[in-house]
Design goal:
Elements (H helix, E strand, L loop, with lengths): L2 H14 L7 E5 L5 H8 L6 E4 L2 H10 L7 E3 L8 H7 L2 E5 L2 H13 L4 E6 L16 H9 L4 E7 L8 H22 L5 E3 L6 H6 L4 E4 L1 H4 L9
Parallel strand pairs: 1-2, 1-8, 2-3, 3-4, 4-5, 5-6, 6-7
Helix pairs in contact: 6-7
The structure holds pyridoxal-5'-phosphate.
């Protein structure tokens, strides 16, 4: 694992951004074995695991019952997997419709919990990406904020697929702007801006990310063939 080099890059981006606050770190563990995940959890500054599939996370949870850090669902969630997701994950970061928000809140209530969530926004407009559009975000934020058994902690986005640094920064800045507006509209603190992956986390930190999601840089290239 390339932990030290990653930490240096994060710290350097934080100082370039003039930031003294904390950026949280999610080790994106999709396709990784439980042994690899244990190794990551041993890094003192790894705060979360990020998984994008309910089934895969469920299988790993069964043999990793002693994980001490929260697991975040960062992939698109289908309605029929919502119950399982609420059972397995500590947070759902990919809320992208009012229907899903209603369903998650109902299920969380049935399971006697308050579920922390993020709203995923499609800031790049790429069709392949999930997430609510920036236009529909404010209404969704109101809906999520009013659900009895959800706690809206912030926003998540996946940056555009491009080498154009300005375009990447624009997408991340857009997420920050939506969060700022939503804070004044709802009165919520919305502390989490989840943006930045292996290829663009420095740009994200410069635009105010408070949670980066890193897979490849930490674990190496992904191999989907043996995926649980
Ligand atoms: C896979 C994934 C990541 C991590 O991507 P890397 O490029 O491997 O760091 C981050 N966020 C989401 C939503 C992902 O699906």
């Amino acid at each position: 694992m390339n932990a030290e080099a990653i930490r240096e890059r994060i710290d350097s981006a934080m100082s370039r951004a003039g930031r003294k606050d904390k950026v949280y770190f999610a080790a994106v563990s999709k396709t990784r074995t439980v042994d690899e995940m244990r190794e990551a959890e041993n890094i003192s500054w790894v705060d979360f695991f990020g998984e994008n599939r309910v089934q895969e996370a469920e299988a790993k949870r069964k043999s990793y019952t002693d994980s001490r850090i929260p697991w975040r669902l960062i992939g698109h969630l289908q309605a029929n997997k919502a119950r399982k997701a609420v059972e397995i994950f500590d947070t759902v970061d990919s809320v992208d419709s009012p229907e899903l928000a209603h369903r998650l809140s109902r299920i969380a209530g049935e399971l006697g919990k308050i579920l922390p969530v993020l709203i995923e926004v499609n800031t790049s407009g790429e069709d392949s990406k999930s997430g609510v559009s920036p236009e529909n975000f404010p209404a969704l934020a109101d809906t999520v904020a009013s659900q009895e058994n959800l706690r809206l902690d912030g926003l998540m986005t996946v940056g555009p697929i491009t080498d154009d640094e300005r375009e990447i920064r624009r997408a991340f800045a857009a997420l920050r702007g939506l969060a700022e507006n939503a804070r004044s509209e709802t009165g919520l603190a919305l502390p989490i801006l989840s943006m930045g992956m292996s290829g663009d986390f420095e740009a994200a930190i410069l635009e105010g990310s408070t949670l980066i999601r890193i897979g490849t840089l930490l674990f190496g290239p992904r191999d989907y063939s043996g995926r649980p």
